[in-house]
Amino acid sequence: MNICVFLSASDLDERYTRAAQQLGRLIGEQGHTLVWGASDVGLMKVLADAVDSAGGRLVGISVGFLAAKARQLQSPNELIVGADLAERKATLLTRSDAVVIMVGGSGTLDEATDVLELRKHGIYDGPVVVLNTDGFYDGLQQQFARMDAEGFLPVPLAQLCTFVDQPEEALAVIEQHAPTRR
Q1: Is the pLDDT confidence value at 34 over 50?
Q2: How far is CA 140 from CA 36, 63, 132, 153, in A?
Q3: Fewest 10 Å CB contacts: which of 29, 58, 163, 176?
Q4: How far, in Å, CA of 76 to CA of 161, rounded?
Q5: CA distances from 74 to 52, 58, 67, 176 (A)
Q6: Rounded CA gap, 41 and 19, in Å?
């Protein structure tokens, strides 16, 4: 299964690094492919290193202005460089069967809201899991719950995404709900 992970390319606290290592190890050990932003720095590097070390495959999707920070991949891995951020996001989702949203900044939040909007309209059918490491997304979860309760979401929040606290839970949700497209 191709699992897209949206996350920060920043060097962050050990609690976030540990979650990225655990998720990457699980993806690799379970024979999945990581589809990610291709950065060879920060949490993106930690995640990709863990997948690679555990025997998983890597599909990096970068963009021209970030290509210098992209991980250089050897076959059977793959690196794709898009023309702009919109193309990069579209390619990330086209190449994935499921999405995990990990900690990140405004870019990760942009990717997260984009995939949730696509799910809302039935355009992206893979499961979306928000890995709420150390309560990072508590505020977002509360906001989405309010949107749901007050009728701003045309489908229930539970149909858009699942919030979990641990990497193991994220993979369990994905494996339970993933479509069999590939």
Answers
A1: yes
A2: 22, 27, 10, 14
A3: 176
A4: 31
A5: 11, 9, 16, 31
A6: 16
